[in-house]
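Much of the work behind modern protein science is quiet bookkeeping, done one molecule at a time. The protein below has been through that process, and both of its lines are reproduced in full.
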Amino acid sequence: MQLPLDLGGAVTDGPADASEGHALFRPIHYLGSKLRLAPTIADALDSADAGRGTVLDLFAGSGTTALALAAHRTVIASDIQEYSRVLCSALLTKPAFTADLVAAFEEKVKVSGHLWEKFQDIAEPLLSYERFALQEASRGIGEPICQVIESGSVLAAERAASPTEADELDAALREVQRRMARAQIAGSSSLTAFRYFGGIYFSYEQALELDYLSAVASTFPSEFSDVLTAALLSTASDVVNTVGKQFAQPIRPRNKQGVIKRHLLAKIERDRRQDSRSIFLQWLERYVQGTVSERPHLAVREDYRDALKKLSGRYSVVYADPPYTRDHYSRFYHVLETIARRDNPAIARSPGAGVDDLSRGLYRDDRHQSPFCIKSQCDAAFGDMFQLASQSGANIILSYSPFDETAEAHPRLMRIDALVAMAEQFYKSVELESVTGVAHSKLNHTSLNFGKPDEAEVLLICRLKR
């Protein structure tokens, strides 16, 4: 089916209340989402920029805050990660289309069945083995599926210095490699999800479906690329077989003594039987039906410094939600980054591992390391942010979470009072508001470092003029 470039149906203004309608759209399972705080953030932006000019959302993440703010003002969503740019673009800057896109995609899937058959034929030895492993898991026998999760990486098998076929899984891995070579796609990015993450984060069939759906999406006009890829990322986030639906590390099916965690077998089986294709179509329908305002929103992939400099003059206020702790967000979303980029990346090795040993989490070797998460770099990172925002003539709203030293929480790399002192070097007025999600109040910043629950949020409202 030929998809018309103009599908008709203009997007309309979304609801003004950030607690309604499209503001509840959560494209992926995301840590630290500020969606529940969106009304308070919008109020703070209004207090710093009453004219409701363009806001630069500097660490846009999953795009939920940007989408909520888009009902009030024009948004430029920026993030260093490609998966974030894709999600924000799909949420904010969709081309004018209707549900015809979903029908067109379903039609294209029907006429591309030969490609799916080709993919299935290549992967059949592993698909067959995992079907057997899941059947065994349903009977309470966990060893086969544990082997898949722990030793079933196609990528690791490709890079093994001494190939073996010691057991049935090894033999299946080797046969799949031979079939990929015959099909002339060995090492190809056309099977990125299957080669990198099949068996480990997804079932082999789920990963293969993600690759197939991506291949079908690539046949559509480029203007639809982001919304189709966003639906793919949302699907991956839903079907991933991990605790908490994150990508920090694969599920651990055994305890430290090597005993299988039998209580996890039902979850493993349930997650790995989810149908990627039907879930993708449901997500695509949601993206198509989502509403955004008609303002000229923009999504970009930029380092925060580059965004502040390159876009200077195009925004009047900045919203910044940088990382708080030593935990790099890229560790939790590296799989989505690779699926979004399909760039066949090198994989990092664990410290002390052999040259052919891959990190257990299969992390990208170029995984982004945020200076806000590095103790020796975070002071300079915050300083650069305040300086560049002030030089552009923009007020800035900074989200930050204080640290209760008595609680079991990851310590923050900057204290609130230190952040206030730094902001005051560049802004004449720095106010603090404590936010609980449903209420907020102005507080003296020295009180915010003690006795505050870990989930509390603080907004620094920085103005160039008093």
Remarks:
- The CA atoms of residues 315 and 404 lie 35 Å apart.
- The chain has 17 helices and eight strands.
- The radius of gyration is 24 Å.
- The chain has a mean pLDDT of 85.
